[in-house]
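Materials and Methods. Structural model of 7-cyano-7-deazaguanine synthase. The 231-residue sequence of 7-cyano-7-deazaguanine synthase from Corallococcus aberystwythensis was retrieved and submitted for structure prediction as follows.
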Amino acid sequence: MAKRAVVLLSGGLDSTTCLAMAKADGFEPVCLSIAYGQRHAVELERAKKVASAMGVRDVRVVTVDLRQVGGSALTDDIPVPKDRSEDDMSHDVPITYVPARNALFLSLALGLAEVVGATDLYIGVNAVDYSGYPDCRPEFIRSFETMAQLATKAGVEGATFKVHAPLSGLTKAQIIQAGVKLGVDYGMTHSCYDPDTQGRACGRCDSCLLRAKGFQEAGVPDPTVYTEGVR
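The predicted structure was written out as tokens:
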């Protein structure tokens, strides 16, 4: 029987690729999606489709309303930045950063891992083509592993937790190329921070721009449905 791993699945390009990699590594994935009050909640529906298409039998959805915390354009009444250059994206932490989001998500994944008897966690953070989020850095991932040993019953009893971040050193183009080799259907995924009511991508937010650039550089057709008149 395959060893279990908890995979954080948002329904986006990165987390979907990460799920495919976990399966390729021989793990039986337990997928965890978080409904945190994000304005792009359409990603949760995409996550369900992705998990089903990849034959995942155990999918959990946890609701944590981060709108009560606020402080981010993804959870608060703050405009999502549009049409920014790569140079603009490289300066400062953008307003789309959700305070301590990955620390919270990994903590929930850690709790689930203890319950299902897993010691491996997968998260699709990327430290190359990303918008400057501090909780996407390798230093954060390693420090979380240290914390996991100290904060869990399994850890103090001798279990060793491993947080896999296989996309960390890859460009968006390299991520897409790796996913294509693993048979990922990127048409099922959603990356836009500010979709319309039909779930179509805006084509102008940082996430859309980085995604489109990745497909172009990977030489792979972009299956994303963008809002009419934007792209």
